[in-house]
Amino acid sequence: MAKPAISPVRWTPTPASTAGWPQAQEPEISVIDVESDSPEDVVVDDRGRIWTGAIGGDIICIDPDSGRWQAVATTGGRPLGLEVLGARLFICDSERGLLQMNLDTYAIETIIEEADGVPLTFCSNVIVTEHTGGIDPRPRELYVSQSTTRFGYDHYKADIIEHSATGRLIRVRFDDDLRPTATVVINDLQFANGIVAHGGLLHVAETGDYCVRSYSPTTGEQAVTIDRLPGFPDNASISADGEHMWLAMAGMRSRPLELLAKYPRLRKLIWRVPDQFLPEPVTPLWLLKIELPGGRVVADHRVHIPGFGMSTGVVETGGKVWISGIGSSKIAWFWTR
Fold this sequence. Notes:
Helix content is 6%, strand content 48%. The chain has 3 helices and 26 strands. It has a 4-stranded antiparallel sheet, with no helix packed on it. The protein has a 4-stranded antiparallel sheet with strand order 2-3-4-5, with no helix packed on it. Strand 7 and strand 8 form a beta hairpin. The protein is globular. It starts with 29 loop residues before the first strand and ends with a strand.
């Protein structure tokens, strides 16, 4: 596949800082091979089942006790971020937009394919912020992150190298007949990624800027939850205690990328180099546990597992923390106690 053209911009990386962080831990990791490449995100439903989606479009259900898994459906695209509400699985598909799947019938339908007239390519993550409640809750409002309007999933590195900040945060409201209306509320995110809601704020990971930004749906105000991260933040979830954010870290910062930050023309030339010759970030299995709303890191889990790939999704349930990632077909977990 031919590479798209890029238009790099000059930027200044913030210096990394881990001041005040606890010592990194190495929990004992168990691994499940789901035999589908790059399970991106991981979520849990009301029955305790674990769900993930892989490159080929497979939607996979994992029994958390036995580790047995089954591919129950396919989106026909590339599922990325996931969210569960009752019997609905919301799916960000980088090729098809925002989808939902019935967890009983496995039927899949499209919710939105564009926002403000721009296609929802690279739909990255989704979170429900308001619903009807009851035994069959229906969404009233949700938010979607779009990593970039410039490139597709196959060329995600182009956006990181270009650094043009075209990531978006999109609000989707549903009327009484569940018809959606999409509105863009932020336009300039640096590779928008995982989203969590806490204390009336949304916290959105900006992979390209090594930070998590907060957004108030009520006032529209924005602030920094945590910045100067030593790596690339990805998908996130709220911890079991409701007071912390688990943040998957896709890899350590790239020194060559930062050295070239002030040289757009040189980055444009380097982008033409075949991918196999471009430097890859160091990618331990890596999670941070961050206190909200203050942004204090209270736990740093890093384990080098050969062949696991980048850590891109995390969820805590039943005393276990589950981790998904791209670059392999494995899902990992460890006990929190």
